[in-house]
Write a structure and sequence with these properties.
The relative contact order is 0.14. The chain contains eleven helices and eleven strands. An eleven-stranded mixed beta sheet has the order 1-2-3-4-7-6-5-8-9-11-10, with helices on both faces. It is globular, with a radius of gyration of 20 Å. A hairpin with a 4-residue loop joins strand 3 and strand 4. Helices cover about 35% and strands about 25% of the residues. By secondary structure, it is of the alpha/beta class. Helix 3 packs across helix 10 and helix 4 crosses helix 5.
């Protein structure tokens, strides 16, 4: 009963409102989450539906339903093909056990007495991971019955990725922004996700609520080892270590813990190329070298998905 009310409350006028209108409605309810990336003042929505701070720095709400809070230009190595490839792998359950474990941790660790829980994905890419987390929490954990509201927030520096994220049918605020100058106000996030993405721990500690949960997911030693061994032909690069990343996280967050999620997934011809394009294994190669490597790779029957989930609290 409780879950049904939760779903109905967020499906009202679904077919009537545009994505921009739905996002505007969410922003009106939760605009206090954000701050101006230029002067760091609070952002407001005035009677003309303009998004601006008190010093009149204006920001756009795109017709696709995302807010652009990026200040300055960027030089990105990520492209649309990579994001589409990752979305396809998520849709085919390559990350399902990982998402399930993350949701179990969230449900076990958050304060369920709160009126509202804000879950943000820092470096969300095309939004598949955050959308999967929110859907899993609603479907499995029963969290909707113990919390009056969950607010999803996805932020990424790539406008191309955020445009794709708005295609998800989820009640999430999508935002273009720089994690090094995060457009989120101090201590507004209850659960901060950082899944296979670069981190900025100074900003993470600033935006996460006191005693808030920070979950960073990094590749494990055996992540895609079947492909790594082929690409690097059993050289030093065929072996991966995340020790430095783990130590850095542990220095940042007192009493940090870590869980390993390891499983195998079957691969078919339709998914083999998206799998390769999703990973950084072939990044930096010239066109000819890229084609040569691709031509010599054989498709394994299964690939190993190996992750470490680092868990910290903002003290």
């Amino acid at each position: 009963m409780c879950k049904e009310k939760y779903r109905l409350a967020y499906s009202t006028s679904k077919d009537v409102l545009s994505k921009k209108e739905k996002t505007l409605r969410l922003l009106k309810e939760h605009i206090e989450i954000f701050r101006c990336p230029v002067c760091h003042a609070a952002i407001n929505i005035n009677e003309n539906l303009d998004i601006r701070c008190k010093y009149k720095h204006n920001f756009d709400l795109a017709r696709q339903g995302y807010m652009n809070l990026l200040h300055g230009k960027t030089n990105l190595q990520y492209n649309k093909v990579l994001f589409l490839s990752r979305r396809e792998m998520v849709a085919n359950d390559f990350f399902k056990p990982l998402i399930k474990r993350i949701c179990e941790i969230i449900y076990e660790e958050i304060d369920q007495t709160k009126r509202m829980v804000t879950i943000a994905d820092a470096g969300c890419g095309e939004g598949s991971h955050l959308t999967s987390v929110l859907q899993e929490l609603d479907r499995v954990s029963g969290i909707a019955c113990s919390l009056s509201q969950i607010v999803g927030l996805g932020i990424d520096i790539s406008k191309e990725a955020i445009k794709l994220a708005t295609q998800h049918d989820s009640q999430t605020i999508w935002c273009v922004g720089d994690l090094a100058n995060c457009p989120i106000a101090d201590h507004r996030i209850n659960v901060l996700l950082n899944i296979l993405s670069p981190a900025n721990y100074n900003e993470f500690q600033r935006i996460t609520a006191y005693n808030g949960l920070i979950l960073k997911t990094i590749p494990g030693e055996d992540y895609l080892k079947e492909l790594r061994e082929q690409v690097f032909d059993r050289t030093v690069k065929s072996r991966y270590s995340n020790k430095e990343t783990v130590l850095l996280f542990q220095r940042q967050f007192k009493d940090a813990t870590m869980f390993r999620v390891n499983y195998q997934v079957s691969v078919n011809k339709q998914l083999f190329e998206p799998l390769l394009r999703m990973t950084p294994l072939l990044w930096g190669l010239g066109t000819k070298e890229h084609q040569s490597v691709m031509g010599h790779l054989s498709m394994p029957e299964k690939v190993t998905m190996d992750f470490n989930v680092l868990i910290g609290r903002n003290s």
